[in-house]
Specification:
Number of strands: 20
Helix content: 25-40%
CATH class of the largest domain: Alpha Beta
Structural class: alpha+beta
Number of domains: 3
CATH superfamily of the largest domain: Vaccinia Virus protein VP39
Number of helices: 23
Distance between the termini: 54 Å
Strand content: 15-25%
């Protein structure tokens, strides 16, 4: 099957079988054949539809573009050489070929290597070697080596008394002086495991915490200090720890030892659980606030991405936010650097137009007399300076905690005045709501002032409180001919949606009525759906939602089951 597919598609990468021993030592079974067929029959931009037609965890995991988020923000040198150890079915390989000069991918399984060959069939800077890394003799050294989800298996594939140490020591010999090793691996004490999630490699809850004595398999993950010690004892002089969340497999945000989460900033995190939620006994999302407040996030982070080198130039990036569930042309990374810059750049070549539009939005808002954080375009990336000012969102949260309704509404009043001043007002008849036929009855009183341009990202989290003056940033989206109230509606909805506790102190209904949003609330929801459909990969989001989420109610039910078993 594989030879026929390769012949038909005539892939450009080199497939090196010199070190292949004629037998694949591991497999996920027949689903791998399904994935290979889907890869052969579809271009990458069609994978979402392919997943939907063959929906299960394995197909989703192998084909989702979220996998690339583990390194698509990382500042690889453009002409560098990369050794990818354990490329699997090529989920990250294409991205490495985009970012680097040449890529050598090693894979134990010929079947999985064939998937990578077909997935990367247009790449002429890729060689795929089938075999055990411990057997292969390389003719060159590399600038970077990636070890994504591989280290934990070396108890089975490195036949020495100290397999994890010895494997890393051998890898170091393949690096150029000051080259960098990138290790991604689960944290043995990740918060999801404390909550009862199944261990990723054995499927048994609490397996890592029980030191892998339940199944007695040769897989191992490590705690934070334990992993750091292992890396340094293997010969690497320096490490820098990143914390991809919800884990390294499907990350949407990457924190680091120099930029840990603060306060309630985990509100956009969506944990997922495979194969199901039936073993959960605690609500993961409900615990992060206390963990962050008590300064123990690094111990409980679900995964690690470790930068390892003899060089001292580690940690160039301190934090990254990744919006990969949008349509491809709108996928963006926002990266904070140790040099005090904030970079925003597209995650695909199709995103260049959107990048320029963001710059245009910023300039247009400034021309309307609004204070906007300076932004410039440099080598395809939007660049701004990091500023230490407090977010307007933090100000309003402080007011809510103090139950200071007066200050809470004063802040919203200021935001609404900024919205009204952000664009020219046009005729009520030009309202976009009538144009898209969400509402056909012209009713100026219902919708209020209509703006020529509505800046949809005039949210409290996209504004700094600069000595009493609002300074906007990250104005990514606009719509023409929208009610000013619709922009305010989005600000209110995001605030209350992210921090549900506010509703108990300052009820949402009270805020909605105060700003005359009640009558049009459902219409605004419909308009927002029209907007989201135009920018978000809805199918991909729905696919991911199958595995996401937990709930306090489900945890309580599971606890009751445990108690009943004890009776």
């Amino acid at each position: 099957m594989y030879n026929e597919l390769a012949e038909k598609l005539n892939p450009k990468p080199i497939l090196n079988l010199k070190w292949y021993k004629g037998q694949d030592s591991y497999s996920d079974g027949p689903v791998e054949d399904t994935v290979i067929k889907l890869i052969a029959e579809n271009e990458p931009e069609k994978y979402t539809e392919a997943i939907a037609e063959h929906m299960n965890w394995a197909v989703y995991y192998y084909l989702t573009n979220l996998r690339k988020n583990i390194l698509n923000w990382y500042p690889f040198e453009k002409e560098s050489s990369v050794l990818e150890i354990g490329c699997g079915m090529g989920a990250i390989t294409n991205m490495l070929c985009d970012k680097c000069g040449d890529v050598t991918a090693v894979e134990l399984s010929k079947r999985r290597a064939t998937a990578t060959l077909l997935r990367c069939r247009e790449r002429d800077n890729l060689e795929i070697i089938v075999g055990n890394l411990n057997d292969i003799q390389f003719e060159k050294k590399f600038d970077y080596i990636t070890l994504i989800g591989v280290l934990e298996y070396q108890g089975a594939y490195t036949e020495t008394d100290n397999p994890f140490h010895d494997f890393l020591a051998e890898i170091k010999k393949l690096l150029k002086p000051n080259g960098k090793l990138l290790i991604a691996i689960e944290n043995k004490y990740g918060l999801k495991y404390w909550c009862g999630a199944r261990e990723d490699h054995t499927g048994v809850p609490f397996e890592g915490m029980n030191q892998y004595t339940v199944t007695n398999r040769k897989v191992r993950t490590f705690a934070r200090k334990e992993l750091e010690r292992l890396v340094k004892e293997s010969g690497f002089g320096n490490t820098f720890f990143y914390y991809p969340m919800p884990d390294y497999k499907l990350p949407t945000v990457v924190y680091s030892e120099q930029s840990l989460p603060e306060g309630e900033c985990m509100h956009n995190l969506e944990p997922y659980y495979v194969p199901d939620r039936n073993t959960l006994v605690a609500d993961e999302m409900g615990l992060y606030r206390d963990i962050i407040k008590n300064g123990v996030f690094e111990f409980f982070a679900n995964s690690f991405l470790v930068e390892c080198s003899d060089s001292e130039g580690l940690g160039a990036v301190t934090r990254a936010f990744l919006s990969a569930e949008r349509l491809e042309q709108y996928q963006m990374a926002t990266v904070f650097t140790k040099h005090g810059e904030v970079l925003k750049f597209p995650l695909s070549q199709q995103g260049a137009v959107h990048t320029k539009q963001i710059e245009k939005n910023s300039n247009a808002l400034r021309r309307m007399g609004r204070e906007v954080l300076p932004l410039r375009l440099r080598e395809g990336k939007l660049v701004s300076e990091f500023v230490p000012w407090k977010l307007l969102e933090d100000r309003i949260l402080d007011a809510a905690r103090r139950k200071d309704c007066t200050e809470f509404y004063q802040i919203l009043d200021r935001v609404y005045q900024e919205i009204l001043s952000s664009s020219e007002e046009i005729s009520a008849k030009e309202n976009i709501i009538y144009a898209v036929e969400i509402d056909k009855e012209i009713n100026p009183a219902k919708y209020g002032p209509i703006l020529r341009i509505g800046y949809l990202d005039m949210l409290l989290r996209n504004a700094f409180d600069m000595d009493g003056q609002i300074c906007w940033f990250d104005q990514e989206w606009i719509l023409e001919a929208v009610p000013a109230n619709f922009v305010l509606y989005r600000a209110v909805k995001v605030l209350y949606g992210s921090y549900k506790w506010i509703d108990k102190i300052i009820p949402l209904e009270e805020t909605v009525r105060k700003y005359n949003l009640y009558a049009a609330w459902e219409v605004y929801q419909s308009l927002e759906k029209v907007f989201l459909i135009s920018v978000v990969d809805i199918v991909h989001m729905e696919e991911g939602s199958v595995f996401r989420g937990g709930s306090k109610e489900a945890c309580l039910e599971n606890i009751k089951k445990i108690l009943n078993l004890q009776k």
